[in-house]
């Protein structure tokens, strides 16, 4: 009886390996899969960056951190002075990564609200764009036109 059970188990193992190998090998990828004129390099990366619909136009980012999906956003108008007042109550916890990059975590009342990558003074940053989300207003900060950080205004 043990030999039969062992034999059936080995047969199932061999069949599983054969089907697994056949499923894993799908041949060489065709050249038609990479037909986009996007700097994404391949279709899988483009799907990750631009979402399931694969549109490569500029728009809202697909994933923006803090649990917010880009497809549920509407652009918001915010005042620079209102942003500076909000940031005046923020404490900054700075650290340097092993690669030497300075990261400043923005904390308000003990809660993480965003970050800035680089050693920038908050008063020198400009508002790049702001989006209305379900959780509040997501504000992107820039320095000389390059996005360097973000935070969530509740």
Q: Could you estimate the helical fraction of the residues in percent?
A: 25-40%
- Provide the low-confidence segments as ranges: 56-60
Largest sheet: 7 strands, antiparallel
Number of domains: 2
Q: Give the N-terminus to C-terminus distance in angstroms.
A: 68 Å
Strand fraction: 25-35%
Strand line-up in the sheet with most strands? 1-5-6-7-4-3-2
Summed up, the helix count is 3
Number of strands: 7
Q: Report mean pLDDT, rounded to a whole number.
A: 76
SSE topology string: HHEHEEEEEE
Give me the Rg, rounded. Answer: 24 Å
The class by helix and strand makeup works out as alpha+beta
Describe the protein.
The protein is 26% helix and 29% strand. It is of the alpha+beta class and 154 residues long. The protein folds into two domains: 2-50, no CATH class; 70-153, no CATH class. It has a seven-stranded antiparallel β-sheet with strand order 1-5-6-7-4-3-2, covered by helices on one side. The longest helix is centred in the N-terminal third of the chain and has 23 residues, at 2-24. The radius of gyration is 24 Å and the shape is elongated. The termini are far apart. The model is unreliable at 56-60 (pLDDT under 50).
